[in-house]
Amino acid sequence: MINENLPKIWYGGDYNPEQWEDPAVWEDDVRMFKLAGIDIATLNVFSWALNQPNENTYNFEWLDETINRLYENGIYTCLATSTAAHPAWMAKKYPDVLRVDFYGRKRKFGARHNSCPNSPTYRKYSERMAHKLAERYKDHPAVLIWHVSNEYGGYCYCEQCEEAFREWLRNRYGTLEAVNKAWNTRFWGHTFYDWSEIVAPNDLSEERPGDVSFFQGISLDYRRFMSDSLLDCYQLEYDAIRKHDSETAITTNLMGTFLDLDYFKWAKQLDVVSWDNYPRIDTPISRTAMNHDLMRGLKSGQPFMLMEQTPSQQNWQAYNSLKRPGVMRLWSYQAVARGADTVMFFQLRRSVGATEKYHGAVIEHVGHEHTRVFQETAKVGKELQQLADQLVDARVEAKVGIVFDWENRWAINLSSGPSVALDYVAEVHKYYDAFYQQNIQVDMIGVDGDLSKYDIVVAPVLYMVKEGYANRLEEFVANGGTFVTTFFSGLVNENDLVTLGGYPGELRSLLGIWAEEIDALHPDKKNKIVTNDSTGSLSGEYTCNLLFDLIHSEGAEVIAEYGEDFYQGMPVVTKNQYGSGQAWYLASSPDQAFLNDFVTTICEEKGIRSLLKAGPGVEVSERVKNGKSYLFVMNHNDHDSTFDLGEERKENLFSGDVISGKVTIEAKDVVILRNEHLGDL
Amino acid sequence: MINENLPKIWYGGDYNPEQWEDPAVWEDDVRMFKLAGIDIATLNVFSWALNQPNENTYNFEWLDETINRLYENGIYTCLATSTAAHPAWMAKKYPDVLRVDFYGRKRKFGARHNSCPNSPTYRKYSERMAHKLAERYKDHPAVLIWHVSNEYGGYCYCEQCEEAFREWLRNRYGTLEAVNKAWNTRFWGHTFYDWSEIVAPNDLSEERPGDVSFFQGISLDYRRFMSDSLLDCYQLEYDAIRKHDSETAITTNLMGTFLDLDYFKWAKQLDVVSWDNYPRIDTPISRTAMNHDLMRGLKSGQPFMLMEQTPSQQNWQAYNSLKRPGVMRLWSYQAVARGADTVMFFQLRRSVGATEKYHGAVIEHVGHEHTRVFQETAKVGKELQQLADQLVDARVEAKVGIVFDWENRWAINLSSGPSVALDYVAEVHKYYDAFYQQNIQVDMIGVDGDLSKYDIVVAPVLYMVKEGYANRLEEFVANGGTFVTTFFSGLVNENDLVTLGGYPGELRSLLGIWAEEIDALHPDKKNKIVTNDSTGSLSGEYTCNLLFDLIHSEGAEVIAEYGEDFYQGMPVVTKNQYGSGQAWYLASSPDQAFLNDFVTTICEEKGIRSLLKAGPGVEVSERVKNGKSYLFVMNHNDHDSTFDLGEERKENLFSGDVISGKVTIEAKDVVILRNEHLGDL
Amino acid sequence: MINENLPKIWYGGDYNPEQWEDPAVWEDDVRMFKLAGIDIATLNVFSWALNQPNENTYNFEWLDETINRLYENGIYTCLATSTAAHPAWMAKKYPDVLRVDFYGRKRKFGARHNSCPNSPTYRKYSERMAHKLAERYKDHPAVLIWHVSNEYGGYCYCEQCEEAFREWLRNRYGTLEAVNKAWNTRFWGHTFYDWSEIVAPNDLSEERPGDVSFFQGISLDYRRFMSDSLLDCYQLEYDAIRKHDSETAITTNLMGTFLDLDYFKWAKQLDVVSWDNYPRIDTPISRTAMNHDLMRGLKSGQPFMLMEQTPSQQNWQAYNSLKRPGVMRLWSYQAVARGADTVMFFQLRRSVGATEKYHGAVIEHVGHEHTRVFQETAKVGKELQQLADQLVDARVEAKVGIVFDWENRWAINLSSGPSVALDYVAEVHKYYDAFYQQNIQVDMIGVDGDLSKYDIVVAPVLYMVKEGYANRLEEFVANGGTFVTTFFSGLVNENDLVTLGGYPGELRSLLGIWAEEIDALHPDKKNKIVTNDSTGSLSGEYTCNLLFDLIHSEGAEVIAEYGEDFYQGMPVVTKNQYGSGQAWYLASSPDQAFLNDFVTTICEEKGIRSLLKAGPGVEVSERVKNGKSYLFVMNHNDHDSTFDLGEERKENLFSGDVISGKVTIEAKDVVILRNEHLGDL
């Protein structure tokens, strides 16, 4: 449990009373928060300039008053540290806080998330701010969690970062010779003879926009370094808080599959993962589900916080559609169903001016509660109060793990060839979606995640195989596991150096194949997947595209062959018996029809079943606690849908009814069904 | 009348004899000008480097000779001040004249319209140039008008501009506290504690290309400031001229709906508006008409100058098509029909080299008069001579005003949300076009324009409502006027701060509605407009798209409802009785079919009729002078068209015939029909 | 012959053993090279940092060993000078080697082809490197040719380049007055009064990305200057080598129709032309053929080197498809058929890391010879050994010359108007392709090429007519030649100044026409070509698009007229009798159907016949040596094709069979047929 002082699904969000001068507004806020069942407010996210109007003055009275006023009204605080945007005076006085951008330009004051992570000034004053806040509020009963900075991201390429990068390299590699070797600098005569010759890889040196690099090794390491540099900034604040407050959880809000940061590494330093969920109207529902599962996976299944979502509308999308009636509630429960222990909004009251004034809020510009958005918000608030603590800290169980690795993703993006259309996250999502469509629970896992608890592990496009990982996969399969990987896997080590001797490198014996060549064609150009399984679960007509490995079986069973082109008849899907388990290889990117049948095939083999057979567009997820199962059934359709519980009797948590047999769920509705859990948790 | 020394529609254009060394060319120019009926030449537009070869030397002999040579041949001068491109020596010696661009880069010498408007050097030498020219030519009988600089535009972001911006802010707001409040800088912690902390908003700070801003307040003010800075440059030259020449009109050439400058503010400082008209082959004819009406509206109906158009071909369009036979003449009269008192070209003779050598000219590279272009030019020249002074200073009368406001446009562009597809000018043009298709005369008016002379005022997307404007609109409607506005109106004040308490803010009581939410969808996604008026003028099947206000009537009559989506049945068109008049609200962007019927409806209510019922593609406009009406009928079609004058007898100014009844007009032809005017002018 | 020590078609490619530490790899390389029939290795292309680890140390032991090891195994060396990428230490110590890019940014160390060509440091050390290498290897029997730097290209805009540009201008024009006149700087007041006022034309001054210029004269001269500056760098190395080695051929590898450099000027300084051929899977085969012919044309028919091609796959294309089975062999012989005396690859062994690790190689990452790619490579190697010296130095004969001129191309690209869709290379290729489809041999010639040996000369879009060239064309036609040119020809001189008095300027009397106007429409908008030749070879239904000259015959016969638009009935194709020959003008860009018939027409008139009538997709080219003809028949189709040799008996060089009559060639196969040559060589 994040904090026992509020033993329920927290409900609230970002709140910026400092933007309002009239105390009557603050009073009205509190009145409406109560109407809406709000019990947590995130404060102080962007108040640095207010808190510290100059180098030596600090001013927290407004914050004292706000925290107290809310607390007196039963509303707790998620306390941010205000360091996500430095004050203008700091940029003026200490330009080292300003970043140099990808294009090599020293930036000026503006926007947010704008500080150089290796700026001495930024590090000094952000740490000091965390220290001052922790010292002041460490014992305040309202403060349930610390929220360091906000949505970390963005890289800097200034000289102080370059110097820090050299130091980071020294720590990682020890010698310059080792760096030269790791980056293969004899290529194009890039050998470095002195540390000072290494410069940051950006548009002035080794890179071009869109993850184009002329030297993958340095570009890959710079991403690691930048992720670490920003993590250092977080850690400085974390440690400063911990000096004063040894217990309260500390987090920072992440952003799903955000590119810049290695969240699996970050998550180790977070007491609880929190994240901001902003799907578009046309975002596939399963993509959001995957993001939730990924956020849950960052800390191996520990419940997370939904730190931000919009009550209705975004402002920075191209077409900021309203969330249709019921959708905010539906998506809130989707988060909870997949592991969230909070439902929080950006924002509680809309700003009157500046960039986010057209971002939705619980309290809109009209300023009263008689709006559709407010009413829907209040309904959820009441329901969460009704649910009390029964879902808090409940876990999600899965027998399928899907591997996701940021370093692998960076390396794939940076690769020059074979295809610009290769999108790692899209490939991962294709596999995720195939399980999702059948309501089979999945964990998203990193490459240091425990494999032994899964029956099936899927690692799409496992291009980079880190030290020891091939052995762990072999052990997993040898012990009976089913492993699935794809084209463009096993090619390189952690330094993006090719594992010589034949693709897929370290995975070759596990998979029982050799990939001789990799064809790349325009994604519109498809090949056929021809299976021999004319009556089984893989008997359909399928296509594939994108990349086409030309593989030879070295012991693997050929499940399907290419149906066209000069490699017609070569294997496209293979299955290798390895110890007690099986290792599958998909040599091209199959269509969804194949993946659905494929998932059916491997799940049937392992006896993994759907949580509930429901129609298309009906999502099912389960949380488990104290021997009880909480089954979330969510109808994303615009029409009613019916599912069949069979003879099992479950309690509808909202209505209190005990039901069984055929159940109809309305469009956009969600039900939570509780029964005795029969699993092994 | 611009200048009584040439009491006719002026005919001529830009002329650059200084690009030619051979006097024989100059003689040939004059010979051909006479053949073409040309009586005005714009001189000295880009001759700064020639006039002032170094800091202390001035050389105007060539200009003396040119003006005199032309004058002796009956050709007057529109005298430019040559300050639209600084000399290379100046850029070398005084780099402060060079701009810093949007990307933060100090520019080098090149192109044109390239001077920093706050450069001390530029201001000093441009003012001095105006002074020297005025001193020299103030009494020259050839000079009919002054033409300051050329096509002002483009912004600068250098340090001297930043400093000037701070001063501009001090003048506008008085205190830094007021600035912080106007920009709502507590958002994202942007509070400024010292003026020096404010930097120019560009790609290094608060903006991104395409009018994307992270802080609307500063971006909006920077546009005002830049428009003012360039206007200051104009004003410096204006004042320098006025010191010597108290009478001759002074102008600078504008560019229609050009984004950068607030032309309504500029027009106050121009004695006569002039502008450059460069439609593409596929530019809607009504868009050009709107531009002319807008230019006429800048000075409340005062006739304007068509300063530039091409005789045939452009050079900087993607595909520089020829003007088809007759089109140059047709478009010239379109300008006159809508208020132009001059027809002028860029250019009289084509350059032999550099960027515009493929821009059309009266005298082409072939160098003689035996070209289609020259012959068409000469035909118009003769006609304008024939028309003599009868059209000069004639006015256009309209009972419909359409509001156009640059600051509103900037604010809409800068808004983060709700839709990137919202295009203010396109929305205004949709309404304009609906009147245009019915040949109903319209005035384009600014937000400080007099409303009392109109029966109908349409203000599409009146997002920003400036101080006092809502009251003026209420007064207009209370006194019987019909007011029309749309979705995304009434939201903010002049500082882009939201008017709280419910959209459309200050317009809410006038319109009798409350807009609770604003949905934004991809423009391809359409809703239906369902009216109850099954037999009336609004009985069609209509659609709408783009934005969809979810409105509630607070007294307004619901004229039409949405036909789809979750807001099916909510009002989409309302009409509110307010005093003696009516205020309409269109909650989404309707299709053209609806707008046509809508215009018919409101014009019928006010008894406003078409100037002439003519077929599609036949444009009609009227000018009025001394109790006479001059009706321009222009056939933009590629085929003949027939219209019916009824029993009224009119004189065809070109043929001299007096006609009535059915009249056939040839493809691309124009007729001007004179009769006694029955109006109230 | 390039070098008599290896009297056969050389076979090999780029080889980088310095990237491998294990001598066992080197031994294996040699073993496999022998298996593949490889006899030449290009060494030392990117080894500068290895050769010169600091300012005063040079280290060539590795190179000695490599050359010797290869030579002992029968493999010769193409010795590169390693100067295509400066070492990191040099960039750090002497930043003058770093370029300033088009956007005005001083670059940092990174990528390759990255040195400022006017950098004193670069020039000093690159010359010194060439000197040291030549001194060391001048007598080494393994070295067959010198390979200076690599793929020269890219421009710099730094201050030292600006200064050198001024000097270059002084040399070209003598006086600043002459520069002002050549650039027509009175336009937009750009007159220069001091050399120092001239700055480099880039995105900070006169240009925008995509060859957009605001001042064509300076932009055109800067391209000439940059081409010359890079050529100076080449020449410095050339001369340094020549000081030590007076005999061995020297080259640098070119890149087909690469934009940056005037290859006709460069070729004069190359002893033998070499080039790198990297078509995509969808590159028209005839485009590659044209490139080969162009490379052959650079030195007036002298055989060239195919310096680089990939054995199978690229890495930097969007979709790096494999070369289908047989295609590498087919394309290798296409090069030989069109004049190549070498078949060489990038690369012999794939890198283990960095940018090109997914670029194909003879030895793939798997490291052994049991791959499709290796086997196909070895097959070609054996064949080339079998062919021995019989094709070496054989020539290609053509009676048709197609003009290609880089300066003309630059001027067209830079032109503001009339159409952004005008693509010089695409227009040239359209004409080339029409001959190619009929297997009519063509020479690609520069504007100083000898015309007298051709029956037909085609100069598509000959926009720029250099001094004396019109006279030479007139002489060619007067003597009986057929000349063909098109719209947008004859407009300007070498300074991009318009030739006044009527288009097509200096070509007007030769062509017997006057082009009064040039219409430009969106390329989708087509006109019709209507011929009077209802029964002849030009009797089809044809269209044209892009640009439409409105021409008047001044003596030329009108062969076809426009069928639409207001210029319907005006000439679109004319033929002018001039002396004993004929000059054709195509006033618009015709479709391929027209061009095919047109080529048939003019070739029939001149008695020029197809080398061999073969079906679509079957390319035929001929080389001639010592009175023997070598006819290459290449089937690019995916299916068999049959052609008819008639009664002529020819020897199939691969099979040794003597054949005649109908012959079937397999998909992707090539045959070389030898017989007695009856021509005049």
Features:
homotrimer; 681 residues; 4 domains; eleven-stranded mixed sheet; alpha/beta; Rossmann fold; TIM Barrel; nine-stranded parallel sheet; 17 helices
How many domains of chain A? The number is 4
Structural category of chain A is alpha/beta
DSSP E strands of chain A, number = 29
Architecture of the largest domain in chain A, according to CATH? Alpha-Beta Barrel
Q: What global shape of chain A is seen?
A: globular
Distance between the termini of chain A: 17 Å
- Biggest beta-sheet profile of chain A: 11 strands, mixed
Question: In terms of quaternary structure, what is this?
Answer: homotrimer
CATH superfamily grouping of the largest domain in chain A = Glycosidases
Largest protein-protein interface = A-C, 54 and 56 residues
Proportion in β-strands of chain A: 15-25%
CA radius of gyration of chain A? 26 Å
- Give the CATH topology of the largest domain in chain A: TIM Barrel
Helix content of chain A: 25-40%
Summarize the structure in words:
The structure is a homotrimer of 681-residue chains. By secondary structure, chain A is of the alpha/beta class. Chain A has 4 domains: 10-156 and 227-387, TIM Barrel (Alpha-Beta Barrel), CATH 3.20.20.80; 159-221; 400-606, Rossmann fold, CATH 3.40.50.880; 613-678, Immunoglobulin-like, CATH 2.60.40.1180. Chain A is built from 17 helices and 29 strands. In chain A, strands 12, 13, 14, 15, 16, 17, 18, 19, 20, 21 and 22 form an 11-stranded mixed sheet that branches. The longest helix of chain A is centred in the middle third of the chain and has 29 residues, at 216-244. Chain A is globular. The two termini of chain A are 17 Å apart. Chains in contact: A-B, A-C, B-C. Chains A and B meet through helix 2 and helix 4 of A and strand 16 of B. Chains A, B, C: Belongs to the glycosyl hydrolase 42 family. Chains A, B, C: One of its GO terms (molecular function) is beta-galactosidase activity. Chains A, B, C: Its EC number is 3.2.1.23. Chains A, B, C: It catalyses: Hydrolysis of terminal non-reducing beta-D-galactose residues in beta-D-galactosides.
